[in-house]
Amino acid sequence: MKIILTKDVDSLGKKGDCVDVSRGFGRNYLIPKELAVIATDKNMSLVEREKGIADLREKKKIREAKELSKKLKKVEPTIVKPVGENKKLFGTVTTADIAEALMKEGLEVDKKKIIIDEPIKTLGIYNISVKLHPEVDGKFKIWVVEQ
């Protein structure tokens, strides 16, 4: 029996895949649990259309991430922190601090996507990476200065 998966099913396939399963497995388990539908011409065309729409959405996300990456290269936000002896910071500069500094520059970046290679505990200029999309990375510099 040929079916089209409507959700990812372990050891069987991903959403949108057309797979061949036994009649009992398809009719008694997959279809009642809405994990699959019977592979008819109508259902096949619906799946193809949904895949096309999903591809367009993904391309739009990639395009937006690339635009944001270009904007990030142009900014160098400044983070002001109190310091102690030897110009060491009280605490560290966190991803939340960096996200807030970017917000002041007019760029909205989720703090979970910001990657800090090593803890920022002293004054200076640091290179920061951002994972905007699985295929797109952004890089920019921050200035950590004394309050």
UniProtKB/TrEMBL annotation:
Q: Which InterPro entries match?
A: Ribosomal_bL9, Ribosomal_bL9/RNase_H1_N, Ribosomal_bL9_bac/chp, Ribosomal_bL9_C, Ribosomal_bL9_C_sf, Ribosomal_bL9_N, Ribosomal_bL9_N_sf
Query: Domain of life of the organism in this record?
Result: Bacteria
Which molecular function GO terms apply here? rRNA binding; structural constituent of ribosome
- One cellular-component annotation, GO: ribosome
Q: Which intervals of the chain form a coiled coil?
A: none
Q: Give the function comment from the record.
A: Binds to the 23S rRNA.
Family (UniProt): Belongs to the bacterial ribosomal protein bL9 family.
Q: What is this protein called?
A: Large ribosomal subunit protein bL9
Q: Which organism is it from?
A: Candidatus Schekmanbacteria bacterium RBG_13_48_7
The organism that produces this protein has a lineage beginning with: Bacteria, Candidatus Schekmaniibacteriota
The gene name reads rplI
